[in-house]
Design brief:
about 240 residues; 3 domains; four-stranded antiparallel sheet
């Protein structure tokens, strides 16, 4: 028996022979019969094994986080294509991303930088084929937090003869959440953390800068500064 001009593969001395062809091609099958009172007679036939039908590529399904910025946690699964031959079975997928190979039905990873990232998957089949799919994930740059500082209620109180700074903060993060707030007045060496309202009194006027340091959960920081000359505060 020959396949596509290859050397004989098997020979069996029997009236029946079963063989599994390992690939597509044309195979020559010969039968030699030798009788007790005659010479050898040979019959041959050609068996054509068709190639495997084409298969569509699998589909990668990605579940993105609510805020698509670093660090971005992604979960990937793969949907196999319909198989033309139901006997051909799909094996366990192997995922490739960021130079890492992971085998399993689900792939979970965290992208720590903004930009485009490539994710690929390979599906082996029981017929020795490999189905592949690729997708590109785009991670947005982190947007810094924003905020305001309102010190309009600051006054000089004639009753106590003290300069009162009264400041209120607002803060928000467009693609995440605020992790910390910190008030800083460098000239007075004052720091206050995680409060919305800042109130302090001074016996003598000074020109100061009220700073609000806003940090989001991606460690991006925004500083809002308001200069104040206490000598110019309204009198109450």
């Amino acid at each position: 028996m020959t396949a596509g001009g290859q050397p004989p593969g098997q020979s069996v001395q029997n009236s029946r022979m079963a063989v599994t062809f390992q690939g597509p091609g044309r195979y020559q099958v010969s039968l030699a019969v030798t009788g007790p009172f005659s010479g050898t007679s040979t019959w041959s036939d050609t068996v054509t094994v068709p190639g495997l039908p084409d298969i569509s590529a699998p589909t990668i399904v990605a579940r993105a986080p609510d805020h698509n910025r670093p660090p971005a946690d992604y979960r990937f699964t793969v949907t196999p294509p319909p198989m033309p031959d139901p006997r051909e079975r799909i094996g366990v997928p192997t995922w490739t991303a960021e130079g890492t190979n992971v085998t399993g039905p689900v792939f979970v990873t965290t992208f720590t930088t903004a930009g485009e990232h490539q994710v690929g998957v390979s599906l082996p089949t029981s017929y020795g084929r490999t189905l592949e799919a690729h997708t590109t994930v785009s991670i947005n740059p982190n947007q810094p937090p924003v905020g305001t500082v309102d010190c309009s209620r600051s006054t000089y109180r004639t009753l106590t003869k003290k300069y009162t700074l009264s400041c209120r903060a607002t803060a928000a993060d467009p693609d995440g959440r605020i992790s910390s707030l910190k008030w800083v007045i460098p000239e007075l060496q004052i720091e206050r953390a995680d409060i919305i309202n800042l109130t302090l009194e001074a016996d003598h006027p000074a020109a100061v800068t009220v700073e609000l340091h806003i940090t989001d959960n991606s460690s991006a920081e925004t500083v809002v500064s308001v200069p104040i000359d206490m000598a110019q505060l309204p009198v109450q």
